[in-house]
Here is the input.
Amino acid sequence: MHFLSQVFHWFGDGSHWRGPSGIPVLFWHQAELSLAVVAGAILLGGGAGVLLGHSGRGGLVAVNAANAARAVPTLALLTLLAIQPSISLKWDGFLASFIALVVLAIPPVLTNTYVGMREVDAEVRDAAKAMGLRGGQVLREVELPLALPFMLAGIRTASIEVIATSTLAAYVSYTDLGTYVIAGLNSQDNVEAFSGALLVVLLAALVAVGLSLVRRGLTPAPLRRRRDGGRLSGVAPAQA
Amino acid sequence: MPAAAQPFFQWSYVTTNWGQISSDLVQHIELTLIAVAIGLAISIPLALAAWRFALIRPPVLAVASALYIIPSLALFAILGPITGFVASYQTAEVALVGYTLLILVQNTVAGLDAVPADAREAARAMGYSPTAELLRVDLPLALPYIFAGLRVATSTVIGLVTVTALIGLGGLGQQVTYGFAISYNTPIIVGLVLSVVLAALADLTLVGIERLAIPWSRSRPRVRAVG
Here is the structure.
């Protein structure tokens, strides 16, 4: 109980809520970095997934390459980028963190988008063509809406991973909630480290719930009842 | 050594420091093996219970997926005060096992759910006791899912062990933090490449074991409904 009351006091301390290393500023830094990274991953990974899924060619190669990229430890990539003179000083560590985290975020978005596009029933696609829809129309009006739940599942996985992992960005001098965690670990201040960790979990939980609601809202109504909607993410069983 | 203009990679670092690098590699493998083994030992019974008893299924799966939103570094920080030792094997292993649980429990439950009802009925009709059915029908048929989970869990843990360098362990992560501390590319690249190689070898090993353990999954004919 003693420990938790110290954490409570940490949050009650007004000085932790003000200034450039106050909770609101660092919370926003973490959200800002994560948002930029997920946007980048949607553009690159989602875009590639849509194109590959639509054409049906080269997809497996891309998915396997993306999965291999998952094995790259983010901490190693992050620090390697951060000590390159051309990158290190850019935007207080933002650039190095951004690139390293985009590499982390692309695989789940790409894989889920691709699988979602391939899951579209061939007969539905044929029916759309038979009704006179062109390639681009089939993509926009049939394939994309049907693949959306899968894509959003990938985006949700990526977002949570990115928010959690952007804690490491504080190690290469970007200031976000990880700053509390790392400062706390370095100075053996368990209370500060724990409080920072709680804030990261809070942000991740907010985003997880938010994206689940978005996914529910954007899933075409007839697909909503299928509970498996697109739980492929990192825990995809067999041959994903 | 790190200078303003260092080469991207220096072989001489690897040859002179091979002793340290290999002991980091061994620690990395140890941390991974222990975490995956304990994770498996806990998650199989947990998944069986969640699958059998509808009452505990939602809480088990909810806890498993909630764990996933906790950042690894933060988990080490949170567990430090609880286990009492910040920079220790125990703290690292508790956190690593936690992450494997999420993946293994979910996949095992999914695998058990996917056991065809026909197979289970046949087992019962042949007079299998519930335990025999579980051990000789349900679990073997869930194995492909369990192996899929093991593969994801293993590669996840290999990646996460690197982060434990920030609490004083780290396996190959120690090469990374060392290189970063003195702005020296080579140790970071050594850590990065070796952990990717380790993940690939571990994955190949698991695929090999899977083929030996469940030979039927390789050559299962794809039966398709006609008409």
